[in-house]
Write a structure and sequence with these properties.
This protein is an alpha/beta fold and about 140 residues long. The protein has a single domain, classed as NAD(P)-binding Rossmann-like Domain (Rossmann fold), CATH 3.40.50.720. Helices cover about 35% and strands about 20% of the residues. It contains 5 helices and 7 strands; from the N terminus they run αβαββββαβαβα. It has helices at about 5-15, 30-40, 85-90, 110-115, 125-135; strands at about 15-20, 45-50, 55, 60, 75, 100, 120. The chain has a 5-stranded parallel beta sheet with strand order 2-1-5-6-7, sandwiched between helices. The longest helix has 11 residues, at about 30-40.
């Protein structure tokens, strides 16, 4: 079952290294403003976007598989139909602990596969909203 309890969400929000799949270089888009918020609150934000070379002054990776830095949480800003492939890439890594899909993004089958592989899953929640609500 995807994570719902505030206690578990707080634990997840303690992780530092967040790969943002679908991170945008366009201010005003949620996929830009939310990672920027996370960055401003001390998270190590790793942008993943094949159409950008750099976001927030950091190298943007083409895919999660290309990231050569530590990743604790994979924060997904891609359509629900792309979640399965992102989960497959997360499962292949040794460092990912959590797959987090933003508001309106869900794939129950992919979430189950991630959980079966030992990952925690948060679906259809905004990391910025939960951070603000639980750490204020």
């Amino acid at each position: 079952m995807p994570v719902e309890s505030d206690a578990e969400l707080r634990e997840i929000l303690d992780y530092e290294h967040v790969a943002v799949v679908g991170c945008s270089s366009t201010p005003g888009k949620a996929a830009h403003d939310i990672p920027q918020y996370l960055l401003a609150h001390g998270y190590d934000v790793i942008p993943v976007n094949p159409y950008a070379d750099e976001i927030f002054g950091r190298e943007a990776y083409d895919s999660l598989a290309d990231v050569d830095e530590q990743v604790d949480v994979v924060d997904v800003f891609r359509p629900s139909e792309e979640v399965a492939g992102i989960v497959d890439e997360a499962i292949e890594r040794d460092d990912v602990q959590v797959v987090w899909t933003q508001l309106g993004i869900e794939d129950d089958d992919a979430a189950q596969r991630a959980e079966d592989a030992g990952l925690r899953v948060v679906q259809d929640k905004c990391m910025k909203v939960e951070h603000g609500r639980l750490t204020a």
